[in-house]
UniProtKB/TrEMBL annotation:
Source species taxonomy: Bacteria, Pseudomonadati, Pseudomonadota, Gammaproteobacteria, Moraxellales
Name of the protein described by the UniProt record: Phosphate regulon sensor protein PhoR
One of the protein's GO biological processes: cellular response to phosphate starvation
Catalysed reaction, written as an equation: ATP + protein L-histidine = ADP + protein N-phospho-L-histidine
Sorted UniProt keywords: ATP-binding, Cell membrane, Kinase, Membrane, Nucleotide-binding, Phosphate transport, Phosphoprotein, Transferase, Transmembrane, Transmembrane helix, Transport, Two-component regulatory system
Class of this enzyme: transferase
GO molecular function: ATP binding; phosphoprotein phosphatase activity; phosphorelay sensor kinase activity
């Protein structure tokens, strides 16, 4: 509890002259000067030394002012935390204001210290690791959870954080935190088979706040899900292949009853849909796994764009859209041609499927010197803006009934998102209901390749 300092007699009456003007305090000095001059005049007239006495009065007044100034300076210099001397006049007003401001500052300081103590106590109680890192990348402070999750020890104060957390992925994240807004998941340096999610935020220039929490359970559950999807997808392939073979055998019979033919046609359509779903699941599983295809191929974009355009024309036979191809960039892409072709094809087929017959689809490849942009623009049904943030989630559908009619698996945009992420790119969507959509795959400058002559 903060205990107030002793208050001098002058300060106890602060309410009386808090709102008084400086003139109210100056009048005390003027009355003293007038009193001294009056006494000096009377004495000077009686003794016959009028001006000498008047000068002596001024000298005495000036000496008293110098004494007050000395007391003020001595208190400020040597005893600032003691009760100030009880002076009158302008010097008393000065002391009162200095002392009052000093007390208010101490109260604020005490409150700030208390607030900081409470904040530190709260951070100490957190299960999440919290680390303060200064502009020189040195550790300033951490809570006990940081010792358990990150292996920081007492002797590490003042050490460079990169000498403690030496994983290449963390060093890359530390140097480019703006490129990973969701943070980084990495193995714990303190415990084997444990994973932590690390998130850093800049403050006060180049200082950083690091927050980390244990995500081992979530990681294990995610791995179980991936393994389950991967295994079940492989297991489904065999029965689907057998069913597909028997269905085709029956459909090839010339004397097949029309009623049975209709049933087998529907069975074949559903079998194809299941095959498409299994293939998408396997592709998504492969994209998420660590066994990634090398992404350093130089992809000739004019050739790829023409191939995609030809494939789109074949797919467009039943839709009768107008297809346009717009290429105004001389840059090629560096990446995996198979994965990028799959991602671009997903965007194009989606545009074709979800655009009413007779629409217009435009595929484009552009660059602005800093980024490469693959675009697919349609005049389709459009998407309500509230759905845009969730479009790349697995199995998320804006209209489930329409997706079933078009044979969609709900995984196309999820695949696109993963492919782009592995190429350092991202998907941008602009859409308005009944006015069409624009899907943009935006690649960083590092992924662009331009042949030099």
């Amino acid at each position: 509890m903060y205990e107030p300092y002793p208050v001098p007699e002058l300060a106890r009456e602060h309410k009386k002259f808090r709102y008084s003007s400086l003139w109210a305090f100056a009048k005390q000095d003027l009355r003293l000067l007038a009193f001294l001059l009056l006494i000096a005049a009377c004495v000077g007239i009686g003794l016959g030394y009028f001006w000498i006495c008047i000068f002596s009065a001024f000298l005495i007044f000036f000496t008293l002012q110098l004494r007050s100034l000395y007391l003020v300076n001595e208190w400020i210099s040597n005893r600032p935390y003691d009760v100030p001397p009880n002076l009158h006049g302008i010097w008393g007003a000065l002391l009162f204001n200095v002392y009052r401001a000093q007390r208010q500052e101490r109260i604020v300081q005490a409150e700030m210290v208390g607030l900081i103590d409470r904040a530190q106590s709260s951070l100490v109680a957190l299960a999440e690791a919290v680390v303060l890192i200064d502009e020189l990348q040195q550790i300033e402070w951490w809570n006990p959870a940081a010792e358990k999750l990150l292996g920081i020890q007492t002797l590490d104060r003042g050490r460079n954080i990169l000498t403690i957390l030496r994983q290449p992925s963390f060093i890359e994240y530390f140097n480019h935190i703006d490129q990973a807004p969701d943070g980084l998941k990495m193995k714990s340096s303190a415990f084997e088979d444990h994973y932590v999610q690390v998130k850093m935020t800049r403050f006060g220039g180049e200082s950083r706040l690091l927050v980390a929490y244990d995500v081992t359970r979530m990681h294990n559950l995610e791995q179980m899900r991936k393994d389950f999807v991967d295994n079940i997808s492989h297991e489904l392939r065999t029965p689907l292949t057998v069913l597909s073979g028997y269905i085709e055998t029956f459909l090839d019979q010339e004397d097949l009853n029309p009623r049975w033919k209709r049933a087998f046609d529907q069975m074949q359509a559903q079998n194809k849909r299941m095959n498409a779903l299994v293939n998408d699941l396997l592709l998504l599983s492969r994209l998420e796994s660590n066994k990634q295809i090398a992404k350093n191929q130089i992809i000739e974009m004019p050739s790829l764009m023409n191939q995609l355009f030809d494939d789109a024309q074949a797919y467009n036979v039943d839709y009768h859209h107008t297809l346009n191809l717009d290429i105004d960039s001389h840059c090629d892409l560096i990446g995996s041609d198979m994965e990028l072709a799959s991602a671009f094809s997903n965007l194009i087929t989606n545009a074709i499927k979800y655009t009413p017959k007779g629409g217009t689809i435009t595929m484009g490849w552009h660059d602005d010197g800093e980024q490469g942009i693959f675009t697919v623009q349609d005049t389709g049904i459009g998407i309500d803006p509230k759905h845009l943030p969730r479009l790349t989630e697995r199995f998320y559908r804006v209209d489930s009934a329409r997706s079933r009619q078009t044979g969609g698996t709900g995984l196309g945009l999820a695949i696109v998102k993963h492919v782009l992420m592995q190429h350092g790119a991202y998907l941008e969507i602009e859409s308005k209901e009944n006015q069409g959509s624009i899907f943009k795959a935006i690649f960083p400058k590092e992924r662009l390749y331009q042949m030099t002559e």
